[in-house]
Input
Amino acid sequence: MTYILSAAKLQTYYRCPLSYYFRYERRVPGAAFFSSAALGTSLHQALAHIYQDWHYNDAIPHLDWVEQCWGQQLNGLTPAQVTQGRAILQRYYTSFIQSESAMRRPVAVEGRIQGTLQVENLEFVLSGRYDRLDYLDEGLELIDYKSSKDSDLTLPDEIDLQIGLYYLALEQRYQRDLKRLSVIYLRSSEKISYEVTNEHRQRVEAMIADLAVQLRYDHKWVPFPGGQCDRCAYARYCPAMQADPEPIPDEAKPEAGLQLVLSL
Ligand code: SF4
Output
């Protein structure tokens, strides 16, 4: 009886249990997501290449190495995106490589993490992805790159949940504590770091325990209206938004009865 849980799922549950139910329990189709992710994907791959394949015989690579890595990630990009991506990586090089006495070899790049947690006789599989994982003297630093033009709408509480989930999963995989989570905004070359405490772990455990009770017994999935409702893809089905909400479409996943829940 396992239940896969990611930071995104936990953050959705925190924002609104009913939207979690629509999205993950019933798989109600949401609004189409339009985004040109090609530039972001190329930037992520170039950065993975820069750190993973550098020979580390010199303290830091020359800018040529960054150019070379970028040159291998241009498939599917427009000329404007090629120029934009190169400029972004040049700024990254100045801010985060050239300014250091040595480029640190990461533990891993573009990795997956997985851990488990037993609550209410459910085994939660905690899963996540990261862009880079570095050793610090006293633990681990997880680094995420953000390439989006849009401002980051993640709330501090939601970041805390992501940190807690990674903490639990990394502890099992590496037997080391996650000490810091850093987000690098590639377009502005800004780095924001969050120091990890035991409270992050306790918070995420409490949130997962709450979710376990919903899945096992309550099935209440209470709507939690707030600022997020403006961009909620499920507002038309939501009793907190509509006096007469539309029925969930037929193509949604059937309602999980108790037996289905028990076989999650
Ligand atoms: S509209 Fe708001 S309250 Fe309703 S499901 Fe979406 S986020 Fe929750």
